[in-house]
Amino acid sequence: xxxxxxxxxxxxxxxxxxxxxxxxxxxxxxxxxxxxxxxxxxxxxxxxxxxxxxxxxxxxxxxxxxxxxxxxxxxxxxxxxxxxxxxxxxxxxxxxxxxxxxxxxxxxxxxxxxxxxxxxxxxxxxxxxxxxxxxxxxxxxxxxxxxxxxxxxxxxxxxxxxxxxxxxxxxxxxxxxxxxxxxxxxxxxxxxxxxxxxxxxxxxxxxxxxxxxxxxxxxxxxxxxxxxxxxxxxxxxxxxxxxxxxxxxxxxxxxxxxxxxxxxxxxxxxxxxxxxxxxxxxxxxxxxxxxxxxxxxxxxxxxxxxxxxxxx
Amino acid sequence: xxxxxxxxxxxxxxxxxxxxxxxxxxxxxxxxxxxxxxxxxxxxxxxxxxxxxxxxxxxxxxxxxxxxxxxxxxxxxxxxxxxxxxxxxxxxxxxxxxxxxxxxxxxxxxxxxxxxxxxxxxxxxxxxxxxxxxxxxxxxxxxxxxxxxxxxxxxxxxxxxxxxxxxxxxxxxxxxxxxxxxxxxxxxxxxxxxxxxxxxxxxxxxxxxxxxxxxxxxxxxxxxxxxxxxxxxxxxxxxxxxxxxxxxxxxxxxxxxxxxxxxxxxxxxxxxxxxxxxxxxxxxxxxxxxxxxxxxxxxxxxxxxxxxxxxx
Lengths: 312, 312
Fold this sequence. Notes:
A: L-2-Hydroxyisocaproate Dehydrogenase, Chain A, domain 2; 2 domains; six-stranded parallel β-sheet; three-stranded antiparallel β-sheet; 10 helices; B: alpha/beta; Rossmann fold
């Protein structure tokens, strides 16, 4: 059985462990700096196993060195951006943490694929690639996959049909500038424009852009975690079971879509090696420009401090 | 607990019972004219339950009366297609079998929904509708899901991607004139027309059309049953759980797609009331012409049916 380490035993980390256990894709190690929390959560999960019938092992540890031998390391640690807090400040804090953890990953699990869930995800993907020195195909951000799931659920609601039959595709940065692509949103293969009027599609696109914020507003001081955990689990399964699944994930671009040195979500084929293929869609000019523009807020985070004023 | 009866406990019927049992959504009654065979399969299923962890009852019987109270009745009974045997060769024998079954369903399970699997499918749907006297929505046929799942598998295999990523829409009659729709066949929303050259798509479409025959050729004395049973179980589940799926099924047309009073494979909204709604796609001229050809083939079959069968 393969080993997946999840760094950060908060809601996202622990729910991911739970979902991964139920898929039987890998054994899970939860790691957190907060003493005891990982072991406590792991015990609780193992005590549910007899009823939920998973046979995977879940363990907890306070020592990052225990991630040694991991096939996949999930980065689920970091601060949640408090309402009103500057994006750049939030990024600086999480980037510092990501650098520290990435250094440990490079040392303890040099062969691992890294799944980044820490926000702002696209920027953190770049930080992790640079810090670990890993091939960019081994560092994968949970961005578009989550936005796509949300768009699919809104389409299911609007149509009153089962979400099982719906695929949606959202690319670009995991920000308000994300690029939902209605042409690639399908109900059992059929374009949603055949089933919904333009106004409804427009509303779905808007709802998708705001979906993360809506949950933060409702839950106060807490991020979404069920859908993010489900997205992480899909990626863990794709890698551990070499599923060759196509999903929109954040990957450091090197010329694809005419963009470089920025991580954005684009459709990728995911398997044992991580991102095994970046699929270049035949985008129209408008979508191509929207994709380039969606890199703006991500690039801004890396700009020198004096250029960053006014960005949030 | 809901109840599903499956008429015809051969390979398709029994395998369908297995897939439905594992979903844990309904008790199952297997009905067959062969003495002892359905009873034996029912017992065998029950004895696998402790290991497979389904909690539903599976029973076998030779008596139609035991389908009483069924929510769904699946009709798989019929003689299988032998090598060299045209679908039309089956017509007379299977008409008699399906007529008998449909009359029994009307008598013992008058509130059920009928899912027809027996071949030639589009014609047997008409026989079941006529002999049961049920409302149009409550008699529909399994064909398009099967043709689509075959197409999905062929596409996934060709592209080296996970089958779970691939959606497909195959319309038309369940025969050589079926209509695979490549622009509504997608990988995570991306039409295969962006991922494969036209010649390869054509080859996959052709293989789909011949999908049933390819297996008959190998088996010599039998036909496919895993994929047909899985497809049927999807429909059973959608009805029992009121799932509102949009999947291609053989549905009775009343002017949709320009055809009247025939069963043809079209996208259907499947829910508790059966084929709740027919979805009319905006087809290209070429696609529409193919669908029309397919409808003509079905009408030929109906003509053959009328030569010896008088509809109520």
